[in-house]
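User: Quick sanity check before I run a bigger batch. Here is a single chain. Can you write out its predicted 3D structure?
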Amino acid sequence: MCGRYALDLSLQDLFSAFQFGPDLLDLIGPEPKLPFYNQAPSDIKPQRPPVVRQAPVIHLREGHPALELLTWRLIPRWSRGQFTSYSTINAKSETITESRMYQGPWFDNQRCLIPCTGVIEWQQREGRAKQPYQICVEDHLASSQDRALPETASARGIPFAMAGLWEASECRNGHTEYSFTILTTQPNDCFAPLHHRMPVIIPPTQYERWLHTNADDAWQLCQPSSLPMRAYPIGRGVNNPAANGPELLALVDPNAEPSPPTQPNKKKHARKAAADPDDPRLPLF
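Assistant: Done. Predicted structure follows.
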């Protein structure tokens, strides 16, 4: 799956990295706040209002590519602008035509590109806490599996684009909610040790094809990525979806044991125990 990612670019750099085709990329609506280091999806729980989170997405508006902030958690067109109880942050590309949730945007060619500099994934470890990694696409001229990891630098690769679908769902009051989901596929060699799924990644030479082509041809692009990729261990600060900052992507030693727990503050512990378990500041993972 893809449940967290980073976009370590300024808005100007984003436009430069994703300027493709003869036309300039338009900006629709408010400017995205960039960079961000821990993009999380919208979070819905039965006992509190949804925590709505938006991210910059490139899609076609009237046949022209545009950058726009959309809600990350697809809101089906038939739900009248309301989140459903289903998890729609990701969609399996292999079964995309079988789901009522995604048939509309898929066959209506509502595809999009999600700019990214790194996908964050967690590795299960027996008897220990999950270890987060950031998976980056590396410049093929500079990448090498034999190259030692830098000791203090943050994990950062070149910009790339994940494949997605966007949807427009009209509310009862006439307002339209725009949202998106990220497509997933089988993992490549880089993702396989971390998770059994990975996001569909569109090569830069195929950006226009992904946005403009028909559904049958687009499905051919939903394959495990062959781009040079590398996974970097990072700290568990990314577990908190509210956290954001470059320090979250700092490289760590995944074998280092965590610091021993300190004596808990009884008053603080009592307040935490009484806190709402659905508090949006709590980790998603």
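The chain has one domain: 5-256+264-274.

User: Great, the batch can go ahead then.
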